[in-house]
Design goal:
8% strand; 677 residues; single chain; two-stranded antiparallel ribbon; alpha/beta; 10 strands; 23 helices
Length: 677
């Protein structure tokens, strides 16, 4: 049947319109799908900004399989999933996936997925975990910068496990604290992560018999020492006594009784290793110390009230005592006497260490022996191996500077690992950066401990038995003849910062749940304050004044010394200005009795004000310090840090008074001082 042409034309037009409409709808759908998937896989503005920030901070833009930055953190950029369309098929299963990717339920569900999709899920989850870890690390490092804490590569959240043994060194040869004070500190040490004590008594040990003159007149009694050991055992702290057996024997060799044991007559620094009498002396000294640490029973009347109430057996209160430290560092005078001259210094040193170690092994075979390492650093590997020293002692490697590898380079670690099965590390929390400091530079000590943590992680695997642990040293004198440096109570914040860091393996930046706050009984800073200022200031030359409100044992001394520091700083600046900057009381004016009375009166008025401030501090010292120290330590501290400034101010007042008495003066030019008779 034929249709009219008009009808055919009309029908064709309808078909064309239908085709065009269908094509348009199809194109719109395709465009919508493309837009949907593009939006779905494109990172949001927040994600993109975060990723750009991460890329800027780390200079890393890695693909899966990746690149690690210098801190060991792997960064992965966002990526589009080619299997995103499969999500709808598994949405019922995926909603049950645990947040923790490695949970057992998650693994079961993932096994049911298509292999390509499962692989993509694993990569996506891993990428998200890595991005999250990187963001946490970035925030952590930002907070470190705010606090003024140095950033050490590889040290942070999620790093290596901390060392198993963490000893606090108590140097008792200067400013020996009262035992009652030390007993209050032991629970604090424990709460901060300490596992033991490194006790260096020197002349504070109660020696007896032929060695009784070694003890200082204010030395601890036998009961004192046993009380300390009981208290250490009660809180679960081990004890490692440190006995000098070669150098740093000034406390003994200075005396007439023992001067015949010196290596050289004019110096009491080190003992002559070639004398049989030296070995008899050393063995007796070790025997008295070791015996007291092995038998620590106390009379009932002397026992701690808490221990009596708990009715604990004395045997259970014997501290864990497994190591004896025999010193042997800084042997400056060696191989000089007629008996030692024919022997090389290295052979002489190694022979003496072997002899002392064998005495310990013979008498106390259960004890391990530790020595300082500094005398071994320059020795050849073959000499160390042939000596057999590696089977007798464990080195305690000490560096108190921020750059450990400057003093212990990689080849030294390789040498030590070839000789010794294990080693110890010695960092510091005070007493390492100035013989007359009274406040420790906490930032430097923290950086030293952080650097040691990095070394511990990288070098520990060299030793067959790993690194045994850390000893955080706190020297009170540089040697027996040196003056006092930072007092223990003043150094408690520095110790808390360093010890908690070593115990965690990184520095904890959080305010809440921070062991430092709880251990030192510090008020937690208000949250609004933290927005503008960090909770602690550890920037360059920080004096840790943020701890002035803490109430830890000895905190009055901490506040007293900070006040003293402010007054002495002002006094020194005044004296320096008077002598070298102002023009009326210089040495020239004083020599010639030539100055303006008005100016002299004006300048000496400040001297009187500062002298009154120092006089008040001297009078208050006993009140601030008597709970911690005896009268001898308090007097020594005043004589060292207050009296010299008082004397200078008195001298200024005296000279000012003389200058003010003159009413007439000679014509210029004034005669040279050398011309005066």
């Amino acid at each position: 049947m034929q249709y009219p042409r008009a009808v055919v034309r009309k029908s064709c037009g309808r078909q064309t319109m239908l085709i065009l409409s269908s094509a348009s709808i199809f194109l719109i759908c395709v465009w919508a799908l493309i837009a949907f998937y593009t939006t779905e896989t494109r990172p949001t503005t927040r994600e993109a900004t975060s990723h750009q920030s991460l890329n800027k901070d780390t200079d890393i833009y890695a693909k899966y399989g990746g690149i690690y930055n210098k801190n060991g953190v792997k960064y992965v950029p966002p990526t589009r999933s080619p299997y995103i369309s499969s999500l709808s098929r598994y949405k019922d299963q995926l909603k049950y996936l645990d947040t923790s990717f490695f949970s057992k339920d998650s693994e079961k569900i993932l096994k049911t997925l298509d292999v390509p999709f499962r692989d993509e899920m694993i990569l996506g989850r891993e990428a998200e975990r890595i991005r999250h870890s990187a963001e946490l690390q970035r925030q952590y490092e930002h907070e470190l910068q705010r606090l003024g804490v140095p950033i050490i590569a590889g040290i942070g959240r999620g790093g290596h496990a901390p060392p198993n043994q963490r000893l606090v060194h108590l140097d008792l040869k200067g400013a020996p604290p009262k035992i009652s004070y030390l007993k209050r500190l032991l629970p604090i040490f424990k709460s901060l992560g300490a596992t033991g004590l490194l006790l260096e008594y020197e002349d504070m040990f109660p020696y007896s018999s032929s060695l009784r003159n070694l003890s200082a007149k204010n030395a601890y009694s036998t009961t004192d020492v046993k009380e300390l050991l009981h208290a250490a055992a009660a809180v679960g702290l081990s004890v490692m006594p440190l006995i000098q057996t070669f150098a740093h024997l000034e406390f003994a060799l200075k005396l007439p009784d023992f001067q015949h044991l010196r290596e050289v007559p004019e110096s009491p620094q080190s003992i002559c290793p070639s004398l049989n009498a030296s070995l008899v002396f050393i063995e007796e000294m070790m025997a008295q110390v070791v015996d007291m640490h092995q038998t620590t029973s106390l009379p009932t009347t002397s026992r701690d009230p808490l221990v009596q109430m708990m009715d604990i057996d004395d045997d259970l209160l014997t501290p864990n005592f497994t190591h004896l430290h025999i010193g042997c560092d800084e042997v400056f005078r060696m191989g000089e006497c007629p008996r030692c001259k024919s022997r090389g210094t290295d052979e002489l040193f190694l022979s003496h260490v072997r002899t002392v170690a064998n005495i310990v092994k013979r008498r106390w075979p259960h004890l391990k022996i530790v020595i300082w390492d500094d005398m071994l650093r320059r020795m050849h590997t073959n000499d160390l191996q042939k000596s057999g020293i590696g089977d007798l002692v464990e080195p305690m490697i000490w560096v108190y500077a921020e750059d450990v590898y400057r003093f212990i380079p990689s080849q030294t670690w390789e040498k030590y690992a070839s000789v010794f099965r294990t080693a110890w590390i010695a960092s510091s929390f005070k007493g390492a950066h100035g013989e007359q400091l009274i406040i420790p530079p906490a930032r430097r000590h923290l950086e030293n401990n952080l650097a040691w943590l990095a070394v511990f992680q990288s070098e520990g695997a060299r030793f067959s038995q790993g690194i045994s642990g850390f000893a955080l040293t706190g020297w009170q004198r540089y040697d027996h003849f040196a003056v006092l440096c930072e007092l223990l109570p003043v150094s408690m914040p520095s110790l808390a910062i360093c010890l908690s860091t070593v115990a965690k393996g990184y520095f904890n930046v959080e305010v809440g749940n921070n062991a430092i706050f709880s251990a030192l009984t510090c008020p937690e800073p208000a949250s609004e304050r933290l927005i503008h200022r960090p909770w602690m200031e550890l920037h360059q030359d920080s004096k840790l004044s943020s701890f002035s409100k803490c109430m830890f044992p000895g905190s009055p001394i901490f506040r007293f010394v900070h006040h003293l520091t402010a007054v002495t700083s002002e006094t020194r600046e005044y004296i320096d200005s008077l002598k070298y900057k102002r023009g009326w009381m210089t040495e020239y004016n004083i020599r010639h009795n030539f100055s303006s009375p008005i100016r002299v009166d004006e300048l000496t008025a400040d001297a009187m004000r500062l002298k009154n401030s120092l006089d008040t501090l001297a009078n208050n010292a006993n009140e601030a310090m008597h709970d911690v120290y005896d009268k001898w330590t308090i007097k020594e501290f005043i004589e060292l840090h207050i009296k010299p400034l008082m004397d200078e101010l008195n001298d200024i007042e005296k000279k000012g008074s003389i200058l003010s008495q003159f009413k007439v003066w000679p014509r210029r030019p004034l005669p040279y001082q050398l011309e005066r008779k």
